[in-house]
TrEMBL record:
GO CC annotation, single: mitochondrion
Identification of the protein by name: ECHD2 protein
Family: Belongs to the enoyl-CoA hydratase/isomerase family.
Encoding gene (name): Echdc2
Top-rank taxon: Eukaryota
UniProt xrefs under Pfam families: ECH_1
InterPro entries: ClpP/crotonase-like_dom_sf, Enoyl-CoA_hyd/isom_CS, Enoyl-CoA_hydra/iso, Enoyl-CoA_hydra_C
Lineage per the UniProt record: Eukaryota, Metazoa, Chordata, Craniata, Vertebrata
The species this protein was found in: Pterocles burchelli
First and last residue of the signal peptide: none
Single biological process term from Gene Ontology: fatty acid beta-oxidation
GO function terms (MF aspect): enoyl-CoA hydratase activity
Keywords: Lyase
Length: 222
């Protein structure tokens, strides 16, 4: 996906009705020794980092439970859409653990430090509507009979992104992700570097030409 230039948006969904991702298999984890657990969690953290580093926008379609590592997977995505009835939470403290695949870092950046601490300290599960009210998900939608309402909304969101200039979208994602980690002056410099890379693109020329000619642009990602 990282190197496929035809990919414009990646949507993460589950094939299991009622569950987005229920997190680690604790029965499996119980059979591991301390060293194996550490190695397992490190690999999981690396996976989430790889998802977060995908150059194109990513959307998590949460149609059911997203618990522990399952919510960490959703947090590694750029955007999240949930069914109102979905249940999500970083429940690790209820099992004698703490989030180990990015949850302690990505949740506060998403909902703020106070709310993140409350959710992690209590291990509380919240529904899609509550998640929307605190900014954890971008959209909360009523579940449908097929059980894929969040996925359908995620597809609609993806279709809003698809017509836009692919390289500009990638540079926008990069500028946001890198800029949020630094002071605003450094962030402005990052934005400037990303903008400079976009200036010589054919898509920028096409966007200007389409505006002058009063027609929809035809972007090619070059």
């Amino acid at each position: 996906l990282r190197f496929d230039e035809q990919v414009r948006v990646v949507v993460f969904k589950s094939e299991v009705k009622g569950v987005f991702c229920a997190g680690a298999d604790l029965k499996e984890r119980a059979k591991m020794d301390d060293e194996e657990v550490g190695h397992f969690v490190k690999r999981l953290r690396n996976l989430m980092d790889e998802i977060a580093a995908l150059p194109v926008p990513t959307i998590a379609a949460i149609d059911g439970y997203a618990l522990g590592g399952g919510l960490e997977l959703a947090l590694a995505c750029d955007l999240r859409v949930a069914a109102s009835s979905a249940k999500m939470g970083l429940i690790e403290t209820t099992r004698g653990l703490l989030p180990g695949a990015g949850g302690t870092q990505r949740l506060p950046r998403c909902v703020g430090i106070g709310r993140a601490k409350e959710l992690i300290f209590t291990g509380r599960q919240i529904d899609g509507q509550q998640a929307f009210s605190m900014g954890l998900v971008n959209h909360a939608v009523p579940q449908n009979n097929e059980g894929d309402a969040a996925y359908q909304r995620a597809l609609a969101l993806a279709k809003e992104i698809l017509p836009q200039a692919p390289f500009a979208v990638k540079m926008g994602k990069l500028a946001i992700n890198k800029g949020i980690e630094v002071d605003i002056a450094s962030g402005m410099a990052i934005e400037g570097m990303c903008y400079a890379q976009n200036i010589p693109t054919r898509d920028r020329q096409e966007g200007m030409a389409a505006f002058r000619e009063k027609r929809p642009p035809r972007f090619i990602g070059k």
